[in-house]
Amino acid sequence: MLSVLGADVGGTKIAVGPVDPVGAQLAPPIVDLSRTEDTESFLAGLETTLRRAMTQFADFAPGAVGLACAGTVDSDRGVVVTSPNLPLREVPLAAPLREALGVPVVLENDANAALLGESVAGAAQGLRHVIMLTLGTGVGGALLLDGRLYRGAGGAAGEFGHTVVQMGGLPCRCGMKGCLEMYASGPALARYASARVRDPERDPGNALLHLREQGLLSGGAVARLAREGHRGAVEAVQQLAEWLGVGLANLTNIFNPEMIVVGGGVGELGELLLRYAREHLMKNAMPPGKDQVRLAAAELGNKAGLVGAGLAAWDLVRSPGAAPAGGGAAARGTVTSGPAAAGLTIDEPAGDEPAAG
Fold it and tell me: Do 204 and 294 reside in the same domain of the chain?
């Protein structure tokens, strides 16, 4: 076996590619559209994409598949409990795909996979206490504690976007008010920029106004203007950074991490965002945590989920006693590549079933 397949499974597309034991992507991924009209169509489309990948990347001899999926994921059972943008609720993925493809399959939450990728092959290499925040349409998160991915009792840990930073604040889709997601996401960035429309000093050339009139005033559009130095867009980034800094201070005070990695579409602003967020983090967090934490932009970009899913698959198949396709026990042991080689651990379930679920 020369590789495993990592699959980033999203509501818009599915990207699949071969990954080596140290997190290198061996070939450009194949990318298919997700079929999200119903559960049956989605599952059929996912299986078709994975079969095509097994064939297309046969020269890399893929021996396992790792899936990174948005939502609450029970990795022990290989089940998507619920997903915000996929028609999945208590749907097993790992076991039926293992049977269909004839190789071990492991399922991981997409933010956990991204953090795993950054910890092995990205910004947080060699660190054991790391938090990841992904800033996009929403705000996702993941947590590495003492070299171990922490999932919580039911796989729902890391929902940092749904921590309250403004009591009685804006209503969130989760049902609460004042969640970090409402103040530090792509839609929040667009909202801050929209408030500066028709101000000639803050919207020179009416760039923001034109975008809004065309229905194109998105977080990504504001980010592009901010990189060009547009005053209103830069101020919108600074406003978001202030709220992000509140969330970062809370996380630093609670977990005392070595590093917080910021990724996602908004996170791609890099230091344009992080230098302001860092100021608020330093202002509000307590010592010694604020003196020990580093704030860094994610390095793997949109391939983090795919790479992390592949690393999770390597951790499964290189463990002594790893299950053959179709069943058998998977005992945790020392491995010579993948996450364990970097000193990281992925929790393994107890019982008669492999981690694939």
Answer: yes
